[in-house]
Predict the structure.
Amino acid sequence: MEYFTTTSAASRRAVDCVIVGTYERNRLGTAAADIDKASGGALKRLLKTGDISGQLGRCAVLNDLDGVKAPRVVVVGLGKISAFDIGRFRKAFGAALRAISHTRCRQVLNGLTLEDVSGAGPYYLGRHTAQAVGDVMYRFTATKSGKKPPQMPLRKVGISVASRADASKAAKGATHGDAIAAGMDVCKELGNLPANVCTPSHVARTAQKIARENRNVTCKVLNEAEMKRLGMHSLLSVTAGTKEPAKLIVMQYKGKPGQKPIVLVGKGVTFDSGGISLKPGPAMDEMKFDMCGAASVIGTMVTVAKLQLPINLNVVVPAVENLPSGIATKPGDVVKSMSGQTIEILNTDAEGRLILCDALTYSRRFKPDTVIDVATLTGACVIALGHYRTAVMSPSADLQNDIVAAGVSSDDRGWPMPLGEEWAAELKSNFADMANVGGRPGGAITAGCFLAKFTDGLNWAHLDIAGTAWVSGKQKGATGRPVPMLSEYLLGRCGALP
Ligand code: BES
Ligand code: MN
Ligand code: ZN
């Protein structure tokens, strides 16, 4: 997508469509006021008749307004002016784009601003404009036959700004947002693909393709024999019941020679049936999304590589399928992890931590500055936080705060959850160094505490995205989260944010 900025009045730009907004109580946004004036009060008249309103997300498409160069104006409701924030901007702008998604519009000018949102300047206007465009443009077609839904022919998106100085900030935001959208696309596509297509081998091939197509990115894939030699018996215990070969995918991006890397580790369970501790039937199909941690860290790699950020980033993805069979791992089995610690597997459905612990141990070889794992780890996390916030756990309050703050500014929010001795004590086992499950209460935290046993001495954080990685119901699909949060954190780490 091509982005441009403009300081000229919305009414004077000859684009296919201009998007303007109106708040509740008939308060027109800057561009809407300009359109209203140029058209001799057309918007104010429509407000009076109720054809347009400030109701958040409500859209009206107006054609051929007098005095307006663009043949189409979308007026979108922005809600209460005092409540307007980035989340509402995304909702409103997304609704406006969807209102014209069936048209032949090739260029759109975004006349909405964030000047009524504290803390969000022109950079974030550019960012979220581009991210919203990416969101609306994404279509899943890979496993549909017949006539595919037409792709929006949108080519060029403009962003209205107040000054030249704002223009360069908005342009930078749009560049970053476009790269984040590209990362989210990769994340969504991997997440949405069914498990019979998106196998560990498919994830590995996707990572290798990304490495071929992006400068300074390499990819190495370890097979089961190599993992066995490394002593990754915890990881391998999860794949025992399936014919799909497990893969350990290692991507490296080098953008800052000599600096310690940041390592992102993503849970890549391409299907989680629970194994011998079989899950109940309802919604089990959604366990194809159990590789969304992997998808998000690979997506973030795409974002970083597209922007060629001055940073070193490694991505480690343990990719496996968790199925029951006659040779699957059984409850009560004891395995030795790569760290040397032994684990009593009391529940084969707590498999994410079994693959992550070996991947985290493997990450030590990079002498990392920071390690962040991302996983659809526990149903308990969904109970704790719902579908709105990613759980952020870390023994380092600084790292935890930085990640939560990155979630706020990218509007891909997280929430801090604790780690502690009390929960860790639930993992005591009579037969091994630890068990892989504790009790049901606080299950997301116990899972974090399990991982903490493998990250001693590392600057490490754990993100549980079980509630945020995908949505269920009619709109079922991967969300692309937490690519924006991770990207924001990395942009901040290399000083690329304003
Ligand atoms: N992948 C699931 C977690 C999950 C469940 C994510 C539902 C999103 C929606 C994970 O592997 C799992 O099965 N966890 C168990 C852990 C339990 C056995 C301690 C869970 O949450 O029930
Ligand atoms: Mn499971
Ligand atoms: Zn799982």
